[in-house]
Amino acid sequence: MVADLVVAIFALGLLGLALRRAGSAYLVFRGTRVITCPGTGQHAAVDLAAGRAALTAVFRAPTPGLRDCSRWTGQTDCNRECLTQIRASPEEGLVRRILTKWYGGKSCVSCGRPLAEIHWTRRKPCLMSPGLRILEWKDIPPETIPRVLETHGPVCWNCFVAETRTW
Ligand SMILES: [Zn+2]
């Protein structure tokens, strides 16, 4: 009876550990990343197989595969060299991280208010093109983000709503 209880507690402990490792790997490797393709030297947007990384993380160091790449539209495959740089620093290149860093300390080019706190679920900040068009991030292909950030300005959610609202 006591032995059964010890085994059950041990099994639950192992299960908890496995779930924690899987969950942690999933959180690290999910999300679109912008990387510099080692094959072409140009920016590309990649998505990893975060679910597979979570499964492999249960038994060993997580090994995320490449699920999608913006460069695969013209060519169907590549040698996935970028995975080496992504595994070395998984946080680097995450789109949300790049944008949060870019907005940091900036003010809205329309109303001048500081973009102090960024809300990515609601009230997402937007951007203004050199042609003074307000754009949402969903309209920007991720692989073009590094180039877009050099030419566009930050716009707050309030200005986006005021500009696009139709009465
Ligand atoms: Zn504004």
Give structural notes:
Strands 1-2-3 form a three-stranded antiparallel sheet, covered by helices on one side. Strands 5-4-6 form a three-stranded antiparallel sheet. Helix content is 40%, strand content 13%. The mean pLDDT is 88. It starts with a helix and ends with a helix. It folds into two domains: 2-88, no CATH class; 95-164, no CATH class. The chain is flat. It has six helices and six strands, in the order H-E-E-H-E-H-H-E-E-H-E-H. Bound molecules: zinc ion. Zinc ion binds at residues 108, 110-111, 113, 155-156, 158-159.
The helix-and-strand class reads alpha+beta
Shape: flat
What's the helix-strand series?
HEEHEHHEEHEH
Spans of 5+ residues with little confidence (pLDDT < 50)? none
Rg on CA atoms, Å: 21 Å
Distance between the termini: 72 Å
Question: What is the number of domains?
Answer: 2
Largest sheet descriptor:
3 strands, antiparallel
The average pLDDT is 88
Widest β-sheet, arrangement of strands: 1-2-3
Counting DSSP E segments of at least 2 residues, the number of strands comes to 6
Q: Helix content range of the residues, please?
A: 40-55%
In this entry the ligands are: zinc ion
Strand proportion: 5-15%
